[in-house]
């Protein structure tokens, strides 16, 4: 018994040290995150912290397949030019630049509730650039508004962001659960209230931009099938949510996303009689993120096996004094702070099991803590230029156009925008789920 306890203690310390080194390296070397996570996962196995027969089952294949399949479908959707047509249709109905930029920001938010945030920025930002060039105004505020808006809606639906997919996998939440969960309003509506609050900020930022704007040439869409695929994905995910968990495979959502991507690729191959679209689509899949997540799943399984997650959970409970509201507040605002400087994917992946452990120790429903974690981590990335991939992408587009945006200029918009969205979400989640 003593030897077994000593081994458990050694494993815990070893796992904790290895995890801390892994996380530091993830922060310091962002371009090598996938390789760091995979190397760390291999060390957890080699050192015997996680048994070899548990490695395969440590990876949430449903999450991996959902992300890969959705990325493929989105690539086909973008290639069809449908997002550009939708943007054109919106702008033609706007009276001036102020409402054109705000409508584009809202459009980016709506699109990013179903499509990757970076892809959304790449689709919508060029429209804002075109407007700015025609009217000879700076595109900086408009691109920043589009970037932070696209990041805001990531927590709205199951497929809106990688963090949402992670929560769905961890808490067994389906597509409809993000709208109504256990008879109460879900994250979708909370995010929309946050979006409405942030519009007030954008109205103030663009209050002087009253120049008229018009679209002379509307984008032409020649293939509507990718749009049908995207809508079909959402519909099938909704239908799958009605099937009881015990009667469907654990990778159901992943099979839906990958299956429809394959349908789209087969059709494109037959239609073009070539493999160019297939090659392009597979290039658009972010394998780096998939490998990062695969490695992180194993690392998290390792620290759970060694008792590190339980130890961290106990520490959080002690700090909060076993007070649920204090713990909720700590999770939300700590998540906002950390996500302002580090990638929220490894952060959320790590904190989900910790949050579940905290709720278990406190004897409370974990939902309010899960929702608080996701809201803080997803919206917190908007605080700084480096806090979210969407922000980095937007600033990269501006740099190519010759605009070097300082952190100060970015945060003039991002800070009030983020605080308005997070504060409203913080209050609503507690009122609904406390």
TrEMBL record:
Superkingdom of the organism of origin: Bacteria
TM ranges: 12-29, 35-52, 59-78, 98-131, 187-206, 227-244, 250-266, 287-304, 324-342, 413-433
Example of a GO MF term: arsenite transmembrane transporter activity
Keyword set, alphabetical order: Cell membrane, Membrane, Transmembrane, Transmembrane helix, Transport
Its membrane topology: Multi-pass membrane protein
Alphabetized Pfam families for the sequence: CitMHS
Entry's localization field: Cell membrane
Start and end residues of each Citrate transporter-like domain: 24-376
GO cellular component terms listed in the entry, alphabetical order: plasma membrane
Family under the similarity heading: Belongs to the CitM (TC 2.A.11) transporter family.
Annotated protein name in UniProt: Citrate transporter
Lineage: Bacteria, Bacillati, Bacillota, Clostridia, Eubacteriales
């Amino acid at each position: 018994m003593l030897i077994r306890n000593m081994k458990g203690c050694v494993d815990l310390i070893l796992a904790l040290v290895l995890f801390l080194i892994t996380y530091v390296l993830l922060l310091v070397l962002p371009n090598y995150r996938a390789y760091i996570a995979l190397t760390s996962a291999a060390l957890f196995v080699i050192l015997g912290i996680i048994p070899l027969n548990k490695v395969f089952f440590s990876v949430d294949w449903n999450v991996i397949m959902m992300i890969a399949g959705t990325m493929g479908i989105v690539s086909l959707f973008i290639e069809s030019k449908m997002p550009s047509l939708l943007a054109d249709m919106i702008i033609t109905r706007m009276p001036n630049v102020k409402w054109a930029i705000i409508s584009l920001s809202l459009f980016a938010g709506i699109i990013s509730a179903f499509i990757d945030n970076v892809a959304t920025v790449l689709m919508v930002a060029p429209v804002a650039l075109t407007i700015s060039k025609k009217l000879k105004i700076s595109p900086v505020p408009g691109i920043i508004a589009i970037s932070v808006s696209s990041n805001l809606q990531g927590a709205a639906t199951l497929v809106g962001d990688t963090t949402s997919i992670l929560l769905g996998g961890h808490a067994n939440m389906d597509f409809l659960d993000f709208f109504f969960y256990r008879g109460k309003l879900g994250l979708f509506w909370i995010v929309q209230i946050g979006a409405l609050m942030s519009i007030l900020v954008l109205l103030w930022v663009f209050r002087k931009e009253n120049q008229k704007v018009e679209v002379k040439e509307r984008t032409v869409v020649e293939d509507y099938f990718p749009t049908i695929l995207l809508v079909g994905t959402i519909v099938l995910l909704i239908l799958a949510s009605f099937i009881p968990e015990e009667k469907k495979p654990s990778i159901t959502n992943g099979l839906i996303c990958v299956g429809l991507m394959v349908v789209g690729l087969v059709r494109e191959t037959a239609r073009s009689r070539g493999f160019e679209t297939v090659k392009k689509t597979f290039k658009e899949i972010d394998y780096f993120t998939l490998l990062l997540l695969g490695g992180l799943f194993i690392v998290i399984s390792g620290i759970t096996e060694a008792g590190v997650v339980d130890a961290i959970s106990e520490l959080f409970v002690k700090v909060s004094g076993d007070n649920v509201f204090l713990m909720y507040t700590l999770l939300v605002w700590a998540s906002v702070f950390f996500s302002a400087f580090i990638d929220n994917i490894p952060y959320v992946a790590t904190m989900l099991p910790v949050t579940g452990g905290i709720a278990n120790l406190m004897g409370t429903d974990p939902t309010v803590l899960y929702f608080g974690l996701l809201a803080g981590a997803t919206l917190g990335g908007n605080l700084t230029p480096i806090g979210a991939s969407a922000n980095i992408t937007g600033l990269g587009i501006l740099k190519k156009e010759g605009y070097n945006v300082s952190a100060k200029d970015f945060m003039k918009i991002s800070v009030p925008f983020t605080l308005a969205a997070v504060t409203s979400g913080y209050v609503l989640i507690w009122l609904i789920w406390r």
